[in-house]
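Encode chain A's predicted structure.
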Amino acid sequence: MTKTVLDLNGANLAGADFAGADLADAQLAGSDLRGTKFAWADLTGADFAGADLRGANFYCARLPGADLTGADLRGSILVGTDLQGARLPGAHLASVDLRCMRLRDVDLAGADLSGAYLQSADLRGADLRGADLTGAYLTWIDLDGVRRDPSDPAILGWIVVDGLLTSTPQRRDKR
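Encoded structure for chain A:
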């Protein structure tokens, strides 16, 4: 049986409710998806390149291998979202809460992560080259194998504590 791929490139779907939907491999490039609900949806391999996703709700959605190149995700809810292997170069993630996110092997090259909250995020193997991390909260991050420019000013000043990266010194009680 051949699966039909949903082609909604450039569509205006602002405020739509796709919660729990199977939208694997959907074509949504350049679409207006402001405030759209994708909670618990399967968006594996979906194409959101250049889409306006401001305020979208991706709570516990699956997006492995999705293309979010240049997408605007400011104000989006991404708690519990699986973005493993997703492509987000040039994406706008300023001030987005990415705590405890599974971001393994994610391409974030040139992404705007300024002010993002990345506490305890799994960034193993991620590409952070050219990403803007100005003011990002980076504590207890696993950066094993991360690709980054070591001369990037956002990287300078980071320290490693117990094998994890932190941008803020942690006080450790000796017992």
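The CA atoms of residues 6 and 74 lie 25 Å apart.
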